[in-house]
Amino acid sequence: MKLLTANFLACAVKGCKAAASSYPLHFKDAELEMQEVDFQPEFIHNIIPRVDWEGLRVMANELGFPNIPGSKPEGDMLNDEQTLRDLHKLLLETHVVDGKLCCGHCGHEYVIKEGIANFLLPSHLV
Amino acid sequence: MSRPEDVLPPDLFYDDNESRKYTTSSRIRNIQSDMTHRALELLNLDAPSLILDVGCGSGLSGEILSQVGPEHSGPHTWVGMDISPSMLDVALQRGVDGDLFLADIGQGVPFRPGTFDAAISISAIQWLCNAESSDVSPEGRLRRFFEGLYASLRRGGRAVCQFYPKNDAQRSMISGAAMKAGFGAGILEDDPGTKNSKLYLVLTVGGGGLQGDITGIVNGMSDVDVLDARKRAMEKGKPSVTRKGDKAWIMRKKEQMTRKGKVVKANSKYTGRKRRPAF
């Protein structure tokens, strides 16, 4: 699973919709893999306004990338190719292949296996 | 021909064997690819986008999303959801580009509000019309799915869902649930009346200055007839000008009572006529 996708995930449990602590989900025992993807500056331009930067920083910290800039690159910074390439590498090329995603509110653990996260819920949590 | 929806729940029906058959059959692949291209045409995306593939299966349609060339404002990045582990396994073996999730769309869409530019779904949402256990209902599953989908699309986003309803009741149940969730909904039917007829539910999320509904989307496409049910519905909804107590009202009531078998006085020239004030 790409970090970009993980940034958009929310806990699926009913009671967690309104709780602030349910976002972002926290990685546990994560195993990472780099997969090369074609560089697409237009896509980064399109998606970056929707990325939750605080959530991304928390996740990146948990995965051991401490040197994330403190604020979201905006405006002119997005014309700099190096910034875009760094974002591309972090958001699209970094994949979590194994591990768990854990909700900070209800504590539900979503298992990730071979890059596929299991979001099936037992019916009493829906 | 039997419908797979009537046989088993989707996660059991698409077992290893069935998933492999589905993915390797060239007939199914052709149909799927035609439908995906049609859906892309209806989405009319103008930049490389993030797309949700609902019921992605083995990634047949996702593959096409990744292959869209830069001249058609691609390639798109996609995220797929499916309930069948075997299908996802086939997708893994084929090495698709999108991120995959094992999830039940009837339980909602587990993404933050405003995540996706668009969503597509090829031959999946009719499965929501089946309740596989006694604690869920088709209505509830459809509601959760469409509410989740509505929230996870950005304003001005679109979703195109191709589906095979069993009958007209299912068709209106699905489009009704979408409209209840807030979508602007319309149905595009390709090859109507033939064996190959395909239904596309085109959903729009308001705002963004786009021409909102399906009539705006198909505007400019050739060979499309627009049947607008809203005009008829509006005329039906118009309050009639008859007021309680006037002649038309009395005649209607008398007719109702006659139909019920009550004894009703015969109509005459005096029926429903105003009395003079002098009386």
UniProtKB/TrEMBL annotation, chain A:
Its main location: cytoplasm. PANTHER family: MULTIFUNCTIONAL METHYLTRANSFERASE SUBUNIT TRM112-LIKE PROTEIN (PTHR12773:SF0), UPF0315 PROTEIN-RELATED (PTHR12773). It is found in: Cytoplasm; Nucleus. One of its GO terms (biological process) is rRNA (guanine-N7)-methylation. This is Multifunctional methyltransferase subunit trm112. Keywords: Cytoplasm, Nucleus. Belongs to the TRM112 family. One of its GO terms (molecular function) is protein heterodimerization activity. InterPro entries: Trm112, Trm112-like. GO terms for cellular component: cytoplasm; nucleus. Pfam families: Trm112p (PF03966).
UniProtKB/TrEMBL annotation, chain B:
It comes from the Eukaryota. It is found in: Cytoplasm; Nucleus. The keyword Repeat does not apply. One of its GO terms (molecular function) is rRNA (guanine) methyltransferase activity. Gene3D superfamilies: Vaccinia Virus protein VP39. GO terms for biological process: rRNA (guanine-N7)-methylation. Residues 255-279 are annotated as: Disordered. InterPro entries: Bud23-like, Bud23_C, Methyltransf_11, SAM-dependent_MTases_sf. Pfam families: Methyltransf_11 (PF08241), WBS_methylT (PF12589). Residues 52-161 form the Methyltransferase type domain. GO terms for cellular component: cytoplasm; nucleolus. Its main location: cytoplasm. Residues 216-276 form the 18S rRNA (guanine(1575)-N(7))-methyltransferase Bud23 C-terminal domain. Keywords: Cytoplasm, Methyltransferase, Nucleus, S-adenosyl-L-methionine, Transferase. Belongs to the class I-like SAM-binding methyltransferase superfamily. BUD23/WBSCR22 family. This is S-adenosyl-L-methionine-dependent methyltransferase.
